[in-house]
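Can anyone check this?
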Amino acid sequence: MNDIDPRDDRRGNEDTAVLTALAHLVDELDPPPTDLVQRVQFAIDLEDIDVEVARWVRAGSLTGVRGGQPGTITFTVDNLTLMVNFTATGERNRIDGWLVPAGEHTVEVRVSEHASATTTADDGGRFVLADVPTGTTQIVVHLVNARGERGRTVVTPTIVL
């Protein structure tokens, strides 16, 4: 492998200068978001740490990347699919969602620096939250088993609305 360690004095000052210039260029052209630490802390700050994390399956081209407005996103984990549509309504957002397999599962929407909003999906798996604030958001689905008891919990990756 051709790894260059800038701390290796045997390579000379030229390599160190090139790597320093490259690091400066990356920081200038594509710096990390200023709220990156807060986003990470929000993403891992779940009361019930025994959760399954859903995968982001399908979305529009670069939807939600660095502040782009999300539209419809599909998440999946094991035998659950969650499709959500985000619609901006002024300063707030409306979330329409569908769970497959359907069921009257509890859906919680967490938004950084705001209280969580909770609703229950209907027997067809559909749910709506009409007044969701803007910010770093996660959707948590508390599944109910066939006996009506709380089962596993699934959480989506964070989305910036």
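Reply from J.R.: I decoded it. The two ends are 41 Å apart (CA to CA).
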